[in-house]
Amino acid sequence: MVYHKIYYIPEIILWYIILMKELTKSLGNYLLAIYELVEENNAARVRDVSQKMNIGAASTSEAVKLLAKKEYINYRPYGLITLTSKGSLAARKKIERHKTIENFLTSVLLLDKNYADELEYSMPDEVLEKFVGYLTFMQNCSCKEPKWIKSFQHYIKEGKMQSKCIECMRNGSSCCSGCKT
Known about the structure:
Layout: H1 11-22, H2 25-41, H3 46-53, H4 57-69, E1 73-74, E2 82-83, H5 85-107, H6 115-122, H7 125-140, H8 147-158, H9 163-171, H10 175-178
Antiparallel strand pairs: 1-2
């Protein structure tokens, strides 16, 4: 008899797995542009998406047809584009994931948020899945900000450990349990 382990997978990670199997970076960008246009105007046209993304109408038309085929949008040639519930949810999840990564880059690593796109699409799926899961957990955890984050930010800014951390390391104690922030 074979027993299977059942793991709880947070919703954002589950949606990430589903989305990444169906949406490339390019299609994801089209979906986000359509989402923004639909939020503003209740619908969009291929030319609106093309103008928003500064991409030719022929390429935009092909992407729109593919998104319709994958059931992210409702679209008939020369007609209006609207989002399906799947497309709306996918766009919101993509935005949420992106904001989570941006927040980490700016508030922990003290980097520019523009690295988020690069980071999202350069990591292997499995690594990004766990990374986003960890960041989501850290953002939603009811504990206060871990003390090591401020020490890490000091290290990033100054290029060296804080004296209190060096002292803790000399004493063989855990810096996070003994330091006052």
